[in-house]
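Can't attach files on this board, so I'm pasting raw text. These are the components:
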Amino acid sequence: MLHFHNTLTRSAEPFVPLDPEGKKVKVYTCGPTVYNHAHIGNFRAYLFEDLLQRHLEYRGFQVERVMNLTDVDDKTIRGAREKGVPLAEFTQPFKNAFFEDLTTLRIKPADAFPAATEPLHIARMIAMIAQLIATGHAYQADDQSVYFRIASFPRYGKLAHLNLDELRPSGRVSSDEYEKESIGDFALWKAHDVADGEVKWDSPWGPGRPGWHIECSAMATGMLGDRLDIHCGGVDNIFPHHEAEIAQTECCTGEKFVNLWMHCAHLMVDGRKMAKSFGNFYTLRDLLDKGWTGREVRYVLLSAHYRLPLNFTFEGLAGARSALQRLDAWQQRLADLAGTAQASTPPPAAAEDKFAAALDDDLNISAALGALFDLVRETNRAMDRNELSPKQARGLLDYWARLNTVLRLEPEAAAIPPEITALLAERTAARTAKDWAKSDILREALLQHGWLVKDTKEGTKVSCTKG
RNA sequence: GGCGGGGUAGCCAAGUGGUAAGGCCGGGCUCUGCAAAAGCCCUAUGCGACGGUUCGAUUCCGUCCCUCGCCUCCA
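---
Top answer:
Structure tokens for the assembled complex are below.
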């Protein structure tokens, strides 16, 4: 039985899909605002969601997932203005980069990536806002913007467990929002401002643009229906974003919007919040430029429990590289032993149960990886003693292939380049001639090219050190 | 001020009312032309501090310390 921690109730709950058949699972995940390259903190959230989806699928559920792209907000508009290009032209490269990054990190694409500026979604947002006004949940203020009236929704604050009477201004509230009935009322429709330039849509309340929260409500219900199984995001989205989504959506649909809210904790870098001013701010591209690979970053960001703050360090990345190479070596050794064996012996059932059962428990990835490494040690030991048959090796490889549909930690498919093959042949010749000096020089040369040479009983083997 | 997450070996990190998974690093050994890889062994009388409950607490309760975060558009 799967259990997940629900932010709303702050406790672990058995997972039961809305689907009467118990098969289909509807998941909505808050995506990036495309004003910049996403940073590794963003990707921690997307990797957590990837793990969630893959494990649900491992357990036989059919996941339908939607991730939005916020391509209109203060930051995107500012960026477009500074660059002197239309909004869409400004955001497109960042959308493209985001998809490339997802591929690099082996994150399974959502079934749909709706963007806020698509006419279909703008229309739905306007329709929802109109309905909210008609039912008294929203009003147009003197500044022409439309606000949600939180006083009309008593449950507002339930998700974040905030007592609205005790909120104190954080200084982030802009001072010109006195038009609102209550300080907590949030914008559904922002009246056009000169600073918005050409960015505007017509609406019954005049030209303007949608507020951030309504975007997710419209796209989530528009694409997945009025009720969702799971809605994810970072903890910083709990308030006000997800709180606002609940209020807007439930006032429109009259249904319980989301059954299970899951939020991942923040990523820290070198023990502190990642910020450009601290010099510890990294995008995925920054790490790739330093020679790290997508799967290494994936491993690091995935290997700690999602609800715990994760401290990212380069020492941790190096540790990930070592651990992954050990897994690679284990698979290679199994593959060599299995040879062409077809018949597969079932893997140790207990081991499989441990891995999947750990993930069943609110995605306890640490325990799951612990179970995997136990298996690695045990089977390596068996191979040392020649106590593992080719059939058993094949069975273990089959088992690994199943686990890997969740982990996706296989080596980068690195074809050996011709020049490397040539160097290897030259070295083999030198070794046959017992010219150890030349052999060692060639080994070092290969290492410089990024290829690690191992002379084993079965012959010389080579593996890429970058991956 | 309100609310919440953390403090477990050099680093990362599971976990339990009954005596501490796993990964990385480090040391020793086996194998090897050397190396690498792999395996085995070693590496926390200790789980932020102090009290309490208990036959027994890292695990429960209390107080305190440190740290990170949210409090109206940051994953």
